[in-house]
Amino acid sequence: MPIVSRGDDEDENESMAAAGAPPGYDFDFDPNDPDQVKVHYNLTGWSFEQRAELAETLAERGVPHVWEGDELVVPEQIEADVDVLFDDLEREIGPFPVPLLDDEGDGDGVTEFELDEWPASDIDVLQQSLIEAEIPHRWSGRTLLVASDAEHTVDELLDAIESGEAASLDESAEAPDGALQDLYVLADRLTRDPTDASARSSLATLVVELSPAAPPFGLAARAWGVIVEHAARVVAAVDEGSEPEVISTTADELRTVCRPYV
Q1: Which residues touch 168 (CB under 8 Å, ≥6 apart)?
Q2: What is the pLDDT along the chain (262 residues), one digit of tens a residue?
Q3: DSSP-assigned letters across all residues of the chain
Q4: What's the order of all strands across the beta sheet hosting 71-75?
Q5: How far is CA 109 from the centre of its chain?
């Protein structure tokens, strides 16, 4: 979940608060209205792909919003719904980075780590580790900035990566070529025809080769883990002799979680 804050406007219009947001968010959101309380979601550090997926989801759900730099701004009336939206996205394309804001670390200061000599593969491992550990941070080129109270934790993490205890991301740690596209195609075939013997066999063979910890290049490990889990469910449904309707439904769920990435 991104860092959330509210706007400075404290006096919310009472009639608006009483009415709330009608179903489908069918109301006018004027971010310049001084009586409108706004909620800000800080998306500093999100990748282009993550922001694109968020923008598409906002459009699909008709969520009233505006952008202010790295912040998504929504009316307070729909904050709970937007929180659920972010929870859904985090399961699919997360985890998300926790940004180190400009006013953080003012007491103990900010520690900088110069990583100009680090290979890109080790930087990728470090970035993923910082995200998974939920350590607030930001980058300035190849310089990593963290609050000084997290310095010791980051030192240990850097030592682990340099010593090889935290393996670099390389091709040997990736899923087989075309695995994601194959999963989508096989899921689509089984959704349409759950008795397709060729699709059943191909999916069972492919799932054996997949690891939740080895995603295709460019895909977040958590999103890949969700996809692998759904693929395993389809294979289990086939192995258990489930009814065609169950297999079709399970395959459709796999197709749905694959669709954003193919």
Answers
A1: 119, 121, 122, 124, 125, 161
A2: 676 676 654 443 333 333 333 346 677 888 899 899 999 998 887 878 888 889 999 988 889 999 998 889 999 999 999 999 998 888 887 778 888 876 554 445 889 999 988 888 788 888 888 887 888 888 888 899 998 888 988 998 888 888 766 544 444 457 888 999 999 999 999 999 999 999 999 999 999 999 887 888 777 767 888 899 999 999 999 999 999 999 999 999 999 999 988 8
A3: --EEEE-S-----HHHHHH-PPGGG-S---TT-TT--EEEEE-TT--HHHHHHHHHHHHHHT---EEETTEEEEEGGGHHHHHHHHHHHHHHH-PPP-B--TTTTTTT-EEEEE-TTS-HHHHHHHHHHHHHTT--EEEETTEEEEEGGGHHHHHHHHHHHHHTSSPPP-GGGSPPTTHHHHHHHHHHHHHH-TT-HHHHHHHHHHHHT--TTSPPTTS-HHHHHHHHHHHHHHHHHHHTT--HHHHHHHHHHHHHHHGGG-
A4: 3-6, 38-42, 71-75, 66-68
A5: 29
Letter for the amino acid at 197?
A
